[in-house]
Design goal:
The structure is a single chain. By secondary structure, this protein is an alpha/beta fold. The protein is about 35% helix and about 25% strand. The protein folds into two domains: about 130 residues, Rossmann fold (3-Layer(aba) Sandwich); about 220 residues, Dihydrodipicolinate Reductase, domain 2 (2-Layer Sandwich). A hairpin with a 3-residue loop joins strand 14 and strand 15. The longest helix is centred in the middle third of the chain and has 21 residues. The termini are far apart.
């Protein structure tokens, strides 16, 4: 039996919880998953880090990612966007596999450096676009590839949230351009652009040009003391709160994308629609076990419950009809990534694919700046 893969994880908040939960679930539900050890959790706050390590099942902690790289076999970079490039590149230069959260980097220049480092390394490097691993999305891709929808004519994608509607909602790093790169565009739009490319890239081709409109509705946000009530200061919001874009695919298909963190009443509403010459489909994240399908033979959309044992990944979970949730997408992507590491093979979505998403996001920003269509 081979030695367990020692996992080092930078970051222990939102994404740290999601991926740690996935790593814990793997051996219970995926019998052929590689054996792993949750080895080192990395962060700055020693007290909070020790508490998180105990809860997440990591045996060691480190406050310096450089030291941790010497002790681990696989590096998970789940830190804020501005911390993606340097640690990930260093790990790849040491031939340590890297799994990095999205978007790949705050800027296209940094994303290019990460892509190049991955190309020069002899180990897998993956970007965490977890929505690819929803069973209903995998089923949708199979339908599209089979030709059931015919020629792809239109792709619609939106990602709507409302956690910033209140102007007194506190400032966070996601609202700083230097730390995040962009706002709703990179945080949410990256998922939409990746899904569009994943689902129809082989049929509709690449996105060749885009328009763009970015808007910030609240220019500054309060910063509160540790008690959560005492106001310390206001900090500027330097990213977009919402964006919209039009896109042209190389086959002539039309794309329309939008995202907002100001869409009152929407909590985590990521939807995508694909319209073809012979059929259409529609997916919504808030009902992620379902796929709405319109075929040439049907009179209207039919709702398919994608929970059969033969559906992607579902046979590892519960009997048919027993739905899975958002957290299971992380189990699926961790299974695929770590299996690629163990087999020493490439993983998709790769850093190259994540770079292509970043290039489209950057083009949308340029289109907004210029007030005109731009080439990607």
């Amino acid at each position: 039996m081979s030695e367990p893969l020692k996992i080092g994880m930078l970051g222990y908040r939102f994404m740290g919880k999601a991926h740690s939960n996935a790593l814990a679930r793997l051996p219970m539900f995926f019998a052929d998953a590689p054996t792993i050890e949750r080895h080192t959790l990395i962060g700055r706050d020693e007290h909070a880090l020790a508490d998180a390590a105990e809860r997440f099942g990591f045996s060691q902690t480190a406050t310096d990612w450089q030291d941790a790289l010497e002790e681990i076999d696989v590096f998970y970079n789940l830190g804020p966007n501005h911390l993606h490039a340097e640690p990930s590149i260093a790990a790849l230069e040491a031939n340590t596999p890297v799994f990095c959260e999205k978007p790949l980097a705050p800027t296209l220049k940094e994303a290019r450096s990460m892509r190049d480092a991955a190309a020069d390394a002899s180990v897998p490097a993956g970007c965490a676009f977890n929505y690819r691993f929803v069973p209903a999305i995998q089923y949708a891709k199979a339908l599209i590839e089979s030709g059931k929808l015919g020629e792809i004519r239109h792709v619609r994608g939106q990602y709507l949230q409302d956690w910033l509607v209140d102007p007194d909602a506190p400032w966070a790093w996601r609202m700083d351009a230097e730390l995040a790169g962009s706002g709703a565009l990179g945080d949410l739009g990256a998922h939409t652009v990746d899904l569009a490319r994943f689902l129809v890239g082989e049929q509709a081709g690449e996105i060749e040009r885009v328009s763009g409109h970015l808007e910030t509705f609240v220019d500054e946000r309060p910063v509160y003391a540790d008690d959560g009530e005492t106001l310390e200061e206001y900090r500027p919001v330097t990213v977009d709160d919402a964006y919209s874009a039009q896109a042209e695919f190389s086959n002539g298909a039309v794309g329309t994308f939008e995202a907002s963190r100001f869409a009152t009443g929407h909590k985590n509403d990521h939807t995508i629609e694909i319209h073809g010459s012979e059929g259409s489909l529609r997916f919504g994240l808030e009902r992620l076990n379902e796929l709405e399908v319109l075929s040439a033979e049907s009179r209207g959309y039919e709702t398919v419950l994608v929970t059969d044992e033969t559906d992607p990944y579902v046979g590892n979970w519960w009997p048919p009809g027993h739905v899975i949730g958002w957290e299971h997408t992380f189990v699926h992507e961790n299974y695929e990534f770590l299996s690629a590491v163990a087999a020493d093979r490439a993983f998709s979505p790769s850093f190259e694919e994540a770079y292509q998403v970043q290039a489209i996001l950057e083009a949308i920003e340029r289109a907004d700046d210029r007030g005109e269509w731009v080439e990607c």
